[in-house]
Hints:
The protein is mainly α. The chain contains 13 helices and two strands. The protein has helices spanning 5-14, 27-46, 48-52, 61-86, 92-100, 118-135, 144-172, 176-195, 207-212, 220-238, 263-273, 277-290, 292-309, and strands at residues 248-249, 256-257. It has a two-stranded antiparallel ribbon with strand order 1-2. A hairpin with a 6-residue loop joins strand 1 (248-249) and strand 2. The mean pLDDT is 94.
Amino acid sequence: MTPTPEQDFDALVESDQRVEPRDWMPEGYRKTLVRQIAQHAHSEIIGMQPEGNWIGRAPSLRRKAILLAKVQDEAGHGLYLYSAAETLGVDRSELLDLLHAGKQRYSSIFNYPTLTWADMGAIGWLVDGAAIVNQVPICRCSYGPYARAMVRICKEESFHQRQGFEILHTLSHGTPAQHEMAQDAVNRWWWPSLMMFGPPDDQSPNSAQSMAWRIKRFSNDELRQKFVDMTVPQSQVLGLTPPDPDLHLDEETGHWRFGEIDWSEFFAVLKGDGPCNQDRIEHRRRAHDEGAWVRDAASAYAEKHRARSEGVA
């Protein structure tokens, strides 16, 4: 008896092979990927804002060059991810329209302000550190284009994390005022970084199916615990303290146990009530509108090149 397309798909996923764009896939699988990849791509381009705003204020030419390279990487990550989404039959212009209309989300972490130079360190160490924990397993995602895009992205994210650690290490071993600034940044970014992994497993409606399809490899809570276990020893090297009085090492399991997360804050930010929600999306809309002439010029050039190659002009 000939297997059905659905049976072939299930067998492919179960055998840990890659689903490619021309393969048959359930509509739910395709929609889940579009939602996840789009949110990831939107997060990369929105995430350029809080750091791009510090390029001109970085304390040295070296710091400016490093931060500029990092922001440029994030633009490239967005490009890879929008390209991966297009293999699923959606156009990036459609995804951007949904973002600008508030119908698709980006990571809640980018709705917090960057108040001091130390925030560039905290974002690199904590936010990009959380991204690495979350994204490395996606290199083994069942969907080929997404998995392949993530290989390069994760390599670059590791540079971003080291850059943030180095900024904080320099500040925390500097003057008392610099140490205080570094600690303040960690205090403000610690809890939002833990929220980056999404709500607890029992409040995450999409996780179970995504794991069954091997889009995700670990649950939200598993990834969050991995991040805490990785980060606490690093904080000890930095000489900085996570703002959690309940944080302690469970000698029996070897895991660092942490306090309760204020999920009301997370859901409020998701609904648009974060400190910078409106500013971030308005800036994105404005940049998109002001860049229309660049897109039009690129389209005109491509059309002219096509016509010449076909001998029309």
